[in-house]
Amino acid sequence: MTNQEAVPAVALVLRTCDKNMQGYGGFQWPTSGEVSAPDWKSKVVCGNGLHGLLWGNGSSANLSRERDAKWLVCEVDPTTCVDLDGKVKFPRCNVVAVYDNMAEAITRIVFDPRYPHPNTEGIASGTYGTAASRGTSSSASSSGDYSKAASSGISSSAATIGESSTASSSGISSTASSSGNSSTASSSGNSSTASSSGASGIAAACGCETWARAGPLGCIFATEWVAAENRYRGAVGYIGENGVKADTWYRCVAGQLVEAK
């Protein structure tokens, strides 16, 4: 860092909690507001602090893979962060947002005006904007009507915002999320998820143990591996028909869509 470059007063950290907003050891996190580590020590060892990924960068092994995990975006003073090689720890932070999936949390981070845009991320804005990234834990986000985002790699994520936008991701535990009317989200890879919000959207998730959800008048597609037949089978559902509900996660079981829990 040169003398002319200043350390940002505030940085964002990504972390996960269980469905009850509890972290390691049962530590209770708030859904918003200030939180402090009662046992803070600045030693370069895991523990004795709050933990997360600075600007969402680091090892995905430090994030939950549970379907009902909560994804937190927190403000921290970067000068207090201790680098733990794949994550950071800090004495206190401010929880600014909580999401049900990775893509929305990453979108919140990469569209922050303070975001440093490291080389592993892709971001674009404006009508017909396109973003692409690849590599483990990579993410791509774009905003604007007809925008597109694509990412590939284990635990990758793609997120778009805008009318007729498209998000596509591939890789184990990948995530695709799009918002806006007629938007499309597609993901491929075992344990991948696809989420489309807004009217008349499409969410398609392909692989083993995939989950998908869509908004009003949306279309859902999810697959499962049938070992006895040595092939995949899929199920299609339409929001508002045959009991399929909007903004609800579904997976394919025995060729039928069932609510994912």
Features:
mainly beta; 261 residues; disordered N terminus; single chain; 7-stranded mixed β-sheet; 22 strands; globular; 44% strand
Helical content class: under 10%
Major sheet description: 7 strands, antiparallel
SSE order: EEEEEEEHEEEEEEEEEEEEEEE
Query: Helical region count?
Result: 1
Give the strand order, joined by hyphens, for the main sheet: 2-7-4-1-3-6-5
Q: Indicate the mean pLDDT.
A: 84
Strand content: 35-45%
In short:
With about 260 residues, the chain is mainly beta. About 5% of the residues lie in helices and about 45% in strands.
Notes on the protein architecture:
Helix content is 3%, strand content 44%. By secondary structure, the protein is mainly beta. The chain folds into two domains: 11-100, no CATH class; 118-259, no CATH class. Strands 2-7-4-1-3-6-5 form a seven-stranded antiparallel sheet, with helices on one face. A hairpin with a 4-residue loop joins strand 19 (219-226) and strand 20. The longest helix is centred in the middle third of the chain and has 9 residues, at 102-110.
